[in-house]
Amino acid sequence: MVRPSAIGQRRKQAVMPLYEHVFLARQDLAQAQVDALAENATAIIEANQGKVTKVETWGLRSLAYKIAKNRKAHYVMLNIDAPAGVVAELERQTQINEDVIRYMTVRVDALEAGPSVMMRKSDRDRERRGGRDGDRPERGERGPRRERAEFDGE
Predict the structure, then answer these.
(1) How far is CA 33 from the centre of its chain?
(2) pLDDT by residue (tens digit) across 115-135?
(3) Dihedral class, residue 69 (left if φ above 0, else alpha if ψ from -120 to 50, else beta)
(4) 57 pairs with which residues across the strands?
(5) Using CA atoms, how far apart are residues 78 and 19, in angstroms rounded to an integer?
């Protein structure tokens, strides 16, 4: 019995490309509206046989420069497992939306399992502050003021 050669033959796999899609929403939107934008993007992907494996909201962050009169923006990242046509449709819908001021989709080899670098950074900063949330530390009781030396102006 002669076996056919496996050289040049590929097995077809149903593996879809992986993407990270980050968009910036206007600063004057409420958090509920930003979540609605993320849900809308998820619905577009799932309607076209793709799936969103993770949604991260990075919150309201300062921009490096003004974009469309905005100094801050709400950052949202989606991990996507979908064909290229789905990503093209998502980007088309994102361009139409006036609430999104910037977006970027990057194809990746593997998606991060845990929290992204931005989420780890915010956790690390929170630990470093010690839970003060930006307030100054307590000074305690300082006692009475001491007298100052007189200055005669010369």
Answers:
(1) 15
(2) 777 777 777 776 776 655 555
(3) left
(4) 76
(5) 8
User: Do 97 and 41 touch, CB atoms closer than 8 A?
Assistant: no
Structure tokens at 31: 């958090």
Share of the chain above pLDDT 70, in %: 80
Residue indicated by tokens 């307030």: 135
- At what angle are helices 31-47 and 84-96 packed, to 10 degrees? 140
Q: CA 128, 120, 77 angle in degrees (round to 5)?
A: 140
Assess whether pLDDT exceeds 60 at residue 113.
Answer: yes
Query: Does 45 score more than 90 pLDDT?
Result: yes
Q: Which helix or strand (DSSP H or E) is residue 15 part of?
A: none
Say how far apart CA 108 and CA 138 lie, in whole Å.
Answer: 46
3-state secondary structure (DSSP) of residue 154: coil
Q: What angle do CA 88, 64, 59 make, to 5 degrees?
A: 65
Q: Which tokens go with 53?
A: 């494996």
120 or 66, higher pLDDT: 66
Q: Can you list the domains of the chain with their CATH numbers? A: 18-109 (3.30.70.60)
Higher pLDDT, 21 or 113: 21
